[in-house]
Each structure stands twice: as structure tokens, then as C-alpha cells.
């Protein structure tokens, strides 16, 4: 409970004694490149394969001749939009970006770089953490859009190349009974997950004490706690919004 | 001038500072010395506000830092330069960017003005041709000098704090850093505070020396008064050094 209280106090500290807006704009752009642009490769790989595997496995399970084959892509689409794109990508995002944030801030803490900022009269938590959270909340939804598109496209390639579905059936299934709210829901989840991952990882890194070993522990804890928070939030959002 | 009164600090059950008071004088190198674990660095961090005190006051030129509101605290902090034990240079920035950083944040100077000021201080610490190097590309002594340059780059700096400036340096480089700190203090007439346990520094730049033992200040004087302090704990600390011991016994 103490840790949760400290986390909320930490979040509150991000908004007091801030620097100028122009300072943050530059930092946010830098973080967007680091967090968003440099995560594209892993998102492309994972989402394409998840889509491909989803298609093949759905086809494998739909053995009844009474079920049309366009249902395969319909299932892949809904799975992708509702769960795979926002949530699985979030777990990967936690592993890549979350650990990077925690270890970066942890190293700054143990090498007294954060103290150096504080001594200069800068609110170090706001200066270092706020841009990371804002950049994550801006970039992660874009990564989710990319992941959703590539996952569905990966499913298309796998389905067509292996012959479990035809291009016409796949595209028909993608369009059938489409509910636009799924996209809004996925993007809402993306914003919430990005906030949780970046803020929890920053919190874990910012309060690192000790040396290199503790930086490693902070990084591991950041990923573990972020993943748990994402899964909890995933369930709560599904209950509340669907 | 900085005055600290009755500073108490404990970490859970362990009392680290037990009612320490003193005055750090302007234009002088004020040294806080003592064995490892006596609370020197904690006292320094309490003075600059990095660690909150349990009790006591810190006054920067009669401005109470402990009771100051956020604005006053920020104003005072912007008059502080600090050299950290590890240098604490920002890894992702070049030497030049590190030195310019306080100006980027604290002033409205143009880029050319900031660059000019950074070049002046880098030249002052003897690092003219390192502007574009990364901290990982320079030696420990150079990192300390960049740290000093960053600490004094803002012309408003009135107080310089150095936490173990010689740690990890060879004797020659240590003397160079000590001399630099002393020269800068004299030139800028700032209040300099150095935490050290290096007797060479004590003898070299100790205009005013405070000796801490088990969280208390047990001796205060200058480098000329070291030999006959009359305080056992201080003598034990000073003459543990073989060279000092030899000097004592002729």
C-alpha cells in the first residue's frame, strides 16, 4: 500500500514546478522517436506473426462444413482489434520500452544525474518523466493501429498462401458485421496501457537505490508490475466498456 | 555565507547527524572532513536540500532554505553549483551540451551567448578541445573538470559544493582539481564547500576545516592549526596517514 501511495505522490510531483512548454516539446519529440519509432521493428515482427498464427489456428479449429470460411477472418479481426493488437503489443512494449525507461532512470539515479538536476532547481521527475509518459501516450496508439493492420494483413497472407481461405473470403470476413466501436475500444485501451507502462516503469527507475544490480532489479520489477497492471486494466476496461 | 544550525538526520534507527552547526564562509574553501560513514556527504546533501533534515536550519546569506517556499528554494538552488563524486555528467549529452545545460534551463540567453559562456568556462578548466566529446570518451579527471565547468557556468552561482572531488583520481590530477577549486573560489569570491577525507586536499586548500565524528562536529579550524588540535578523534584521523605522522614526529 505504501508503494501505491508513493506512486500517486510521484505522479502528482510531475505537475508541479514545471519547466517551460518549449522545453517539454523538444523532450517529447526526442522521446517519441525513442519510444515510438524505435519500437516499430519489434511491433511489425510480432503483430504480423500473431495475425498469421491466429488465422492458421482458427482455420484448424473450424472444421464444421456448416461454418463459412469467411468466419476465420472475422474472428481474426475481432481478436486482433479487441485483444491482440492493444494487449499483446502492450506486453511487448512493457518489455522493450518499460525496461528501457526504468534502467535509464535507475542509472541516472545511481550516478547522481538526477541529484544534479535537483540541485540546479529543476523538478527532475517532471523534467525526465513527464515527456516519457506523454510520448508513450501519443505513440503507443499509433503502434497499436500499425499492429492491428499488420496482424490482419499477416493473417491474410498466411490464410491465402496456405490455402485455408481465399482472398475474397478473407476480405469479406474482415468487412462482415464490423463494429466501429472495437477500434475506439482498442485505442482507449492503448492510451491507458501506455500510461500505466510508462508511469510504473518511470516510478520503479526513479526510486532506484544502490548500484548496477539494483538497476537490473528495478528494470525487471518495472516490466513485471507493468504487465500485471496492463492485464488488470485490460479486464477492468473490458468489463466497463464492452 | 551559509549557516547551518543544529542539523539532525537519522535513517530509520541510525543517527547520522546529531546536532551539527557551522558557518561556511564566502571566498573560502570550507572543508567538511571525517572518516567514511561519519555523515559528511549527508550533511552536504542536507545543506543543498537533496536530503530533508529531521531538525535544524540552513541559511544561505540569511535566507532560510529549510522554511523557504518553492519559489525561494528554486531561486537559491539556481545560485548553487555542485560537483558530484561521480561527476554526474549527463550520458546522452556531449561535454559542451552538459556545460550549457544549466544555461538552457535557467537563462534566456541566445544559443551563441550560451556557447560563448560554455567555451569560457571550459577554457577556464583547461578543456578547450573537448566540446564534442561524450562523457564516456573522457577520463575521470576530465569528467571532474567538466563537472566544475557546469557548476560555475551560470554567472549567478554564489555557492559551490564539491562532494569528494578527488575520489578515484591519481595524486597529480587530485592536486590539479584542488587547485582549480581554490582558484575559482578566489576568482569568483563564492562560498565553496568541499567534502573530503583526502589529507592532501586538507593541507592544500583548507581555509576552514570542520571535522565530523559520529555525526557530530568535534573540531573546527584551518590547515595551520591541524598539528595541535588537542582533539583525540581528529588526531587519530589526521595521523593515521603515515606522511602526516612522520611530519608530526619530525
Automatic annotation (TrEMBL), chain A:
InterPro entries: Permease_MalE. It holds the Pfam family MlaE. The keyword Transmembrane helix applies. PANTHER family: ABC TRANSPORTER PERMEASE PROTEIN-RELATED, PROTEIN TRIGALACTOSYLDIACYLGLYCEROL 1, CHLOROPLASTIC. This is ABC transporter permease. The chain crosses the membrane at residues 40-63, 181-203. Keywords: Membrane, Transmembrane, Transmembrane helix. It comes from Shiella aurantiaca.
Automatic annotation (TrEMBL), chain B:
GO terms for molecular function: ATP binding. Residues 2-239 form the ABC transporter domain. SMART domains: AAA (SM00382). Gene3D superfamilies: P-loop containing nucleotide triphosphate hydrolases. Keywords: ATP-binding, Nucleotide-binding, Transport. Pfam families: ABC_tran. Coiled coil: none annotated. PROSITE patterns: ABC_TRANSPORTER_1, ABC_TRANSPORTER_2. This is ATP-binding cassette domain-containing protein. It comes from Shiella aurantiaca.
